[in-house]
Each structure stands twice: as structure tokens, then as C-alpha cells.
Amino acid sequence: MADQLIRATAAEGGIRAVGAITTRLTEEARQRHQLSYVATAALGRTMTAGLLMASSMKRAKSRVNVRVKGDGPLGGILVDAGLDGTVRGYVENSAVELPPNNQGKLDVGGAVGNGYLYVVRDVGYGYPYSSTVELVSGEIGDDVAHYLVTSEQTPSALVLGVFVGASGVTAAGGLLIQVLPKAARDENLVETLESRVAALSGFTPLLQAGLSLTEILQDLLGDMGLMIFPDTQMLRFNCNCSFDRVLGALKMLGEAELQDMIAKDDGAEVTCDFCRNVYQANSAHLTQLIADLQTESSASV
Asked: Which domain holds residue 249?
């Protein structure tokens, strides 16, 4: 099934629901970064969470940056997700592997450890909105839901899952359910919703059972006036790095550093953290950057 996202409402607009399948993009990230099992689960969950959060933004170029920084062996996780359905991300220590946790599942919480979740929402103009919360479990879903409740004052349930087998990622995705202010006062509705979400055995078992996103939402919210929006959004791993961006970054190092690169290495090799693409800048490229810097310096005098 293709990577996709659908949006829905229920309870006369009092509940917002978003479901996403991210199997292929998570597998692409696993291959690009040569991720271990637990690192694949951690990054896949975070990329899915980023896409689910970005789905509620309004302006076309809106993006969400999610950074998880814990004291566990995985180090940090950084994800950049857009309203346009694109996402990219990486983990600091991609080869880390841990034994399964007490439930026999990949120990993402142990790999992440204690620390903080940082979220930046960029709507494409003005100053981005940023917020920081402490991690509550390191399992990503609990932590992002905690952020949504404490920083955005929106009661939320977030179910994320990544299943990694010997051949790679075979199922990944997530479900975000949010109770909006108009429905939050209905205690029976909230309790019913909480019990249904708690009863889910996870998200990937639903995909492995062959259920579509529409069927998953129908089972969960079908008797609550569910309305699924007609547009299905396709999702993909995508990085906007380029050789021109690399040259711009090298230029910021300054003339002395560029001269040193030419003398020692006859150029520079740059690897994008997000996608692992490698860019080669030879001595001619660096010499031109130096000339540009000298021209700019003369013009500013």
C-alpha cells in the first residue's frame, strides 16, 4: 500500500483524526542511513509524528521540525516534515541496537533515554513557533502527545508503529486523534474515545491485517458521525539538499578555511545528514568561492 495520509472529523467537528501509512518512506530512510532495528523504529515513529502534526497547518510551505534529544545511546533524532507530505530525518547513532523491552518490542524508549522534545512550527512567514517539553517515555508517541496537550492545549492520542523484519520495514504509520474545545466538555465522549484508543493493540498490526486507513478510522469513529475528507495525500521521503546549497554552506566557512581545504585536500566532500547524499567540491569550486568572498569584501568597503 502506498504511503498516504487521510484527514477526518467526527462528533460534529469536535474530533479531528488523521491517519498515515509511512512504510515505504521509513524503509527508504533505513536504507539511506543504514539504520539498526531500534534506530529504524525511532526514526520512523518520529517522521510519522512530524507528518501527522504538519497535516493541521494551513499555508502551503508550512513545516514542522521535531527534535528528540535524550541521554540514551541513540543520541538525538531530527525530523523535518511538511504540509506538502514530504519528510526527511536522521538519528545521531544509527547503528545502536538494544535487546527487546519487557513487552518483547523494540526498546525505543531505552535507546532514546531521558531528555527533551523540541518542536518548531514554521508557517512560512514571520518567526517560527517553538516549544520544548520533557520526554515522558522516549517512545515518541507518548512524548509528542504530551507536547500537544501541554504546549498546544489540545488533548491528543497518538498511536505510532514501525515493524522491521529481516528484509526491512514491512509496516509503518500512525494515527492522531485530537479532541477540540467544542467536544472536550463532553466527558462521556472523551472517556469512550480514550478507552477505544487504549484498546488498540498498536498500529502496525492493523496494517498487517490488511486494513486501510479508512477502515481503521471507521472502526474507531464510525458511530461518532465520522466524516472522511475526500482527498488522500501521498507521502514521501524527500530532501531539498543540492550542490548549490552545499557551496553556500562552504562559502560561510570563510576564505582562510577554504584555502586550507584546497591546500590539504584539493577540495571538499560534504555529506547531507538528512539523506546521506555526498557532494564533491573540487579546488576550482572553492577557488571561485574565495573570489566571490573577495569581491563581496571589496564592494562593501
From this structure: 243-300
